[in-house]
Protein: Cyclase family protein
Organism: Paenibacillus thalictri
Amino acid sequence: MRVIDLSLPIADGMPVYPGDPEVKVKIKHTYESHTWELRQLSLGSHTGTHVDAPSHMHPGAATLDELPLECFFGASQVVRTDDPAWPGGRGLFFAEAAGQDCFDRLALLRPPFVGGELSEELERSLLGIGILTYTGLQGLERLPSGTDFMFYGFPLRIASGDGSPVRAVAVVEAEPAAGEE
């Protein structure tokens, strides 16, 4: 089994979506002053690698703390926008930018979540029908194409949360060694 980290590191001054809060990570306690180290974090709920709850773009829709934990992990596959068929019953992650032209197919499949470089219009449409979105992922090209992997992207349990940074992880079955099957 291989565990692949798909998360961007959260760092002081990292890039954010225009208009989002600046990310500040400051050391507040040090070993020398307090015998432990502690950082103060200031960031928006959609910083770095994050999950969007339906309430992010739709008033009155489900918030993070209203969604069961099962919504944030599951069997998944990387797909391309021009693939003739996408698998059903699993999360889908796009290998390239995906726009609104993908919505009708996704609405029919109803994956539990969709990730990758998604247009704002596609995100809004998916969240409107209760499909969670993951953005700010890195390293999707390291995942096998056409093969299931387990995805885990748990948010912080933010009361009435519209989104949260996540530690996004893919668990891929190990490829058999030469001569094994």
